[in-house]
Amino acid sequence: MRHVLNDLEPYVCVFEDCMDPHRLFRDRAAWLSHMQEIHTKQWTCTAAGHKPYIFETEQGFEDHMRSDHAGGFKESQLSWYKRRSQGPSATTFTTCILCGYEPAEEKISTLTAARGQDSNQKYERGKVVSEDVAKHIALHLQALSIKALPWQESIEDEELSEKAESEHADEGHESNTDRSSLFLIDANISLQFEDDPKAVYDIECEPDEGRVTDSDNILKSYEIYEEEWGFIRRPEYYGHDRDPVLQTLLRKLYLDSSSGTDRRTGLVLPVFMMPPTPLNKNFFGRDYALNAIGAELCPKATSKSSDGKVATYPLTFTVCAPGGMGKTQVAIQFAFTHQKDFDAILWVNADSVNEMAQGFQRIALLLDLVSEGSADANDLLYTREIVKRWLVNPRARDSDGERVSHKRISWLLIYDGVQDPDILNAYWPYDGPGSVLITSRNPFSWAKSLPLKPFTSDEAIDFLLKLTGRNISDVEREIVSNVSTRLGGLPLALTQMASIIVTKQLSFSQFLESYNERESQRELLQFQTELKSMSYEHTVASVWAFENLKHGRKLLNVLSMIDPDSIPERLLMSSMHDIDLPGYPATIKEYENARGELLACSLVTGNKNEHKLFIHRLVQDVARARMGPAELRQTFVACVKLVASIWPFENFAWRHGTARWPRCEELFPHISKLKDLFPATLPSLGASNDYRFACLLTDAGWYLHERGRPTDSNLFNNMAQSICESLKFRLYEHADKSFNCDVTHGQLDYTLAELYHNRGCIASDANDAVEAMKNLTTFHDMMQKELGKKAQHADMRLGLACNELGNAYMLKEDWVEGEKYFLRSIDLIQQLDNFEPVLLSLPLVNLGYSFWLQGRLNEAVAVLEKGVRDREEKYGTDDRTSFISGRFYHALGNVAYDKGSKEDSLSYHHKALLHYKSTLGNNHHRTAAVFIKVAEHNIHVHQHDTAIALLDHALEAYSTSKNYVPEKVRASFKRSRALRSLRMIDMADKELRQCFRVYSEVAMEKVRLTGKHRVLKSRAEDLIDEDFDDLVAFWSK
């Protein structure tokens, strides 16, 4: 029956003001999660000094903070605290909105007592009542979905009164063991479904060991299908990848079932994600460029391009030129002046993969493809792919609410500032029916390109006159010509010099005289007549302006050392009082004066609505070039302090939460820029500045690991470790204290230990057993030396080290040694003063895996079920704080399968899949592992087409990394089995041959790693599932 309900998707939101009232939910957890997260909220104060306080209103939380925590925060920080403290309310319902049911007082007391709680406590009482009423409403919805089915005519007229349904609902709720009561159907109606999971497994033939399914058994399953469902016409099968009906179903069941995904269809055309900088009111000339772009990219009635050839989509055009030539301004002008020609215009900063990923994330939100704050919205790979799908097949609604055919939708995608054309590959919209405009410093051979040229002398003169608002005589025109010649016709330089002329109220001759005086002193002012030398990009006349900045010079220096795009102003103001940088704004008033001066001189641009600044990379280069080594170092240190003051650091403990990811994503580009600049800075006289940067790099590296980017993570770890080891060497070298050091050996050892831990975890996650063992052994030994003889009151690092070292032994298939370290980890953590059961989650789930792999199934179940109970008691049944609950469900599914309970196994694995999708997203390797487990269940019940689709999702997720080779080949082998069962023999044989080649290499490497003897198969046709299951890491099994 559970299988039938899943197919019916019986749950809908029952709130009248829901923006998505027609969305269906296939399970109760996703249904409840939607209503809690969208319609009911609460605010929780967890500050030290009192027990957690829960507030049902935002105003209540504000009043509490102002009265009980006055002086502990600034008023400007209150909004941040509110966002951080906000979460779904535990009290969603108080009565049934369909029949008025509410639980009796006796029942409330019984339920709260079963939990060990006091029914008089408002929070616990409300939570119990809400959960009981939610179950009651769920039964109503199940009944409605069953009644909606097309039953036989003999029972079509049988209807239950609303009163009777309510009574049945209440009775069914009282007894969870009576499954028939779930459906609220009259006792005279007998419902028997042969295709629920248990029934399917009961008729299942002998387990398939990787060989072709016996034809008699296949025929038997077909006969059962025809007997039960033969009245439904079966369309001819062409393969899941070409079956639009099946694809729609699979996307609904397996891609969009995450509770974080909010399928909305409210997108109304036109939509524009325009550049962050406004339209330049002083834009001048460039008509030839705008006309060329329009001729190539504007939608046409004809199918031929401007050169007469048949157009291929997307229509593509590139504007190329050195920095400061105005490429971005041309693209902005084209976008704003051609809004009527496109239904959608989408702007993406494209100078790095990180910025492109964030750009596609914003597009996904704009197009209503994901809901803000969901796991899918935070999954940059998912948002990239879903935007590409929309670009290939764009859909929306017009202003009347009618769906617009994709043939009528035209879009323009602008990639601004492409430096490496290779990064476009992953973000290219295939053959989408739209237009792509690219700006780059270099032309591309595969796209039509237009090189922008400097202004001619007449154009430069007219441009300068327009900017300064002056009229001149023919004699003065010669002087203006000399000025424009000096500036080389570079639009950016002309703009900045015009600002200086207006601000200082100089005549053109006075400006030229001043400019010539400084020419001999600044090599950066020497312009090249040809644009072949890179020095051209640094010969910007704004150098003269830098020297005359009264308020903004130090602010400009800081801006030159962080990422130029989308600089949040709160970063610049966060610690202005503590910045040791003479001349940097120390008050809000000083900051506003400095910012205003930079804006007036066109050195930066701003977005008032988003409170962000933007600076041209060319201006950054010149600003940095003007600083001497000491000033460069001082400015770098200030930048590190500013970024570190708002970076959401995590304590060195269990660190797997996802709440901080959006803030990290915003600030990470600035840390990356500082990492690139660090080698050019001088070592600090004091050690604390470098140590602060090492700590920032370490935490940013861990964030990258959490987001599934291990290679980038190790680059950050390498620099952090190099800094710490250098500081330790300097401490030893100057033991006489001649070295001005304000960092201790203990602090450096703390961070080095964290780095060994992080490297070991990254290696473990990538299934690199050798590297994991090396780093985690070092981490464990450091913790044992520091903490082994101390009572574990507040420092959990030794317990953490034992757990991770246990994982390293598990990767080498030493289950017994792994068990020993997991048990020690549990013992150490239980000694903590702030101990609570959920702190044992990771060592418990790992211990459960160890018991399972040793064949101690009952012990595994006991440990894993305890871990689930602990987390549900702390976080509720719909825990989404991290991926850890998903690990418990995954492990329980494995144990249930080995105990012979295949229905429970499928239920646990499906629950793990939904949990991973809502916390880690679709493209994480843990999600991929459970895709494979669910696919195995589908293979066992001969649903091979669905299994193939699931395995394809797993392979796509694994494709984002060079690791996980055993996991990839396992998925491919199971895919070959499914293809063979569908009689697609050639494809199955080809995939099997590829699997065998990889199997031979991986299996031999496994023997060398573990030292265990394995009988290696010599023929591809002898391979079975167990051969590949044996190769993968324990947490992927």
Ordered list of secondary-structure elements with their pairings:
Layout: H1 2-8, H2 28-38, E1 41-45, E2 53-55, H3 58-68, H4 78-85, E3 86-88, H5 105-114, H6 122-147, H7 153-156, H8 162-174, H9 197-202, H10 215-229, H11 244-255, E4 271-273, H12 287-297, E5 315-320, H13 327-337, E6 344-349, H14 353-366, H15 375-378, H16 380-392, E7 396-397, E8 403-404, E9 411-418, E10 435-440, E11 448-451, H17 457-468, H18 474-486, H19 491-504, H20 508-519, H21 542-547, H22 553-559, E12 567-568, H23 569-573, H24 588-600, E13 604-607, E14 612-615, H25 617-626, H26 629-646, H27 661-677, H28 688-706, H29 710-733, H30 745-765, H31 769-787, H32 797-811, H33 815-829, H34 841-853, H35 857-875, H36 884-898, H37 902-919, H38 925-940, H39 944-958, H40 965-981, H41 985-1010, H42 1025-1029
Parallel strand pairs: 4-6, 5-10, 5-11, 6-9, 9-10
Antiparallel strand pairs: 1-2, 1-3, 7-8, 12-14, 13-14
